[in-house]
Amino acid sequence: MNDRFLKQINIDWEKIECGNYLREISSLNSVDTVSFDSNITFFVGENGTGKSTLLEGIAVAYGFNPEGGNKNYNFSTYDSHSGLHDAISLVRGVKRPKSSYFLRAESFYNVASKAEDYRGGDSIEAFYERYGGKSLHQQSHGESFLALIQGNFNEQGFYILDEPEAALSPQRQLTLLIEMDRLAKKGAQFIVASHSPILLGIPDAILLSFDNGKIHPCQYVDTESYQVMEMFINNREYFLSHLLSKDYIN
Ligand SMILES: Nc1ncnc2c1ncn2[C@@H]1O[C@H](COP(=O)(O)OP(=O)(O)OP(=O)(O)O)[C@@H](O)[C@H]1O
């Protein structure tokens, strides 16, 4: 039985006006329903295929701030979100998550700044205890990402992550993989947009590809993230000589 926090979303395209760019995103405009049938669902595919747009639409429909944070974050530094959330209805599970977070690599700096505002008169050590005892701005991008995940995510949580690998070294991507796998096995749910050939390899995750103008399940070894990385590492010299040849560049 699917007892996930978010089981499915439905999109009512009649609520999106004609001329809105959302109607031009070919992977999305033919989709009415997306189901979440595993505790980890990855959105994969080429740049610009609509992964972040759908992720953000789901996050905002769920009650998150478009720039990220937990559900208490309520601020806007740049009003760029799409309006897709107005057309999305959520099919929630019976259980409610004990924690939730929308993590976006691209606006994490703003979220870290906002955390500092919310600290008020609390000491840094007390307020940031769950983040390794230091302000998020006093840690590197990757350190603060991982501190946030390790200190705040739990086994009964619901998490939406947009390219969490962006700040992480390969070693720390492996740490994140272990953490996600551990939490998901205990009941946490993740919906993640990613290009990481490391993260996408988590066992039992469902991969939804946004390539070829539709959203469809795909296998790890069929993702471009895996194939390009595998080809590059195994045939680096041949690959580079071809890529950097004058014929290819011209
Ligand atoms: N405010 C906007 N106005 C018009 N088009 C937009 C706007 N925001 C995004 N788009 C377009 O929507 C499409 C989907 O963008 P989106 O950011 O969802 O892609 P993505 O799959 O997440 O890409 P990436 O892997 O690079 O993060 C892109 O073609 C993008 O140019």
UniProtKB/TrEMBL annotation:
Domain ABC transporter: 6-237
Sample GO molecular function, one term: ATP hydrolysis activity
Domain of life: Bacteria
Keywords of this entry: ATP-binding, Cell membrane, Ion transport, Iron, Iron transport, Membrane, Nucleotide-binding, Transport
Organism of provenance: Anaerosacchariphilus polymeriproducens
UniProt membrane topology term: Peripheral membrane protein
InterPro entries: AAA+_ATPase, ABC_transporter-like_ATP-bd, ATPase_AAA_core, P-loop_NTPase, Rad50/SbcC_AAA, Siderophore_ABC-ATPase
Organism phylogeny: Bacteria, Bacillati, Bacillota, Clostridia, Lachnospirales
Gene Ontology CC: plasma membrane
Protein name: ATP-binding cassette domain-containing protein
Pfam name, any one: AAA_23
Localization of this protein: Cell membrane
Keyword Metal-binding recorded: no
UniProt keyword Cell membrane present: yes
GO BP field: double-strand break repair; iron ion transport
Listed PANTHER family: IRON(3+)-HYDROXAMATE IMPORT ATP-BINDING PROTEIN FHUC
